[in-house]
Amino acid sequence: MPTVRATGLAPAGAARVAVLGPLAMAVDDRDVVVAGYRRRAPLARLALARGSIVPAGRAADDLWQADLRRRSVPTLRTYVAKLRHLLPGGDAILASGSGGYRLAIGEGALDAARFERAVQAATGSPGDVERVLLPALAEWRGGAYEEFAHLSWARHEALRLEELRLAAQERVFDAQLALGRHAEIVPALGALARPTPCARACRSSW
Q1: Count of CB atoms situated within 10 Å of the CB of 69
Q2: What is the dihedral of CA 160, 65, 103, 157, to 10 degrees?
Q3: pTM for the complete prediction?
Q4: Residue range 5-59, pLDDT digits in tens
Q5: Phi-psi region of 98 (alpha: psi -120 to 50; beta: other; left: phi over 0)
Q6: How far apart are CA 40 and CA 140, in angstroms?
Q7: Cβ distance 104 to 51 under 8 Å?
Q8: Side by side, which strands form the sheet with 100-103?
Q9: Which of 86, 83, 62, 84 has its CA nearest to residue 73?
């Protein structure tokens, strides 16, 4: 399973989550394997909210849209309790409040948020743009929320992030052309032509 490191975060309860590809998580610089779709989906849903509280009823509806047997707040509480037991400091990371839950992780602890900040910060000369955007694009290990992009709660965000990724890659191409490094563009263009899991999932839902 893909993993993500939490290096550089505070030592107590530091958590980092990756959604630009298969869901991955680390706590205190140790990879945490969250096995099973029904545990991974609530974690991804809370990650999408970026620190905001997701009402329990809304989360249950989103996660088990067509499964009336599971689509309930008590079911959600069961899976949140399992996640809390699995994660070091789980009660603090999966925080309760105002009738819902939120993922309480530090600023910069979500790869999608770091990517967006890098895109906004990529200004200046072609060399400056390339230096900022290449590491940001390297955060991508697959499609955004790729395990969940077929579901309505993830689809819009996955497509939005994918559009940002394509725009960032185009800016890198422009920078490399300006720097006279044409040979570096051809392999990247080939990779860009391959459909992402998000694109495949979204096409299948139309």
Answers
A1: 7
A2: 0
A3: 0.82
A4: 333 333 334 899 999 999 999 998 899 999 998 899 999 999 999 999 999 999 9
A5: left
A6: 18
A7: yes
A8: 54-55, 100-103, 94-97
A9: 62
From CA 157, how far away is CA 148, in angstroms rounded? 11
Residues 81-123: tens digit of each pLDDT: 999 999 999 999 999 998 999 999 987 899 999 999 999 999 9
Residue 57, CB-side half-sphere exposure with 13 Å CA sphere = 2
Q: Which two tokens stand for residue 10?
A: 């505070």
- Residue 143 per-residue DSSP state: S
Contact predicate 111/19, CB 8 Å: yes
What are the phi and psi torsion angles at 15 (to 5°)?
-130, 150
- The encoded tokens of residue 6 equal 């939490």
Portion of the chain with pLDDT greater than 70, in percent: 81
Tokens encoding 142: 């697959």
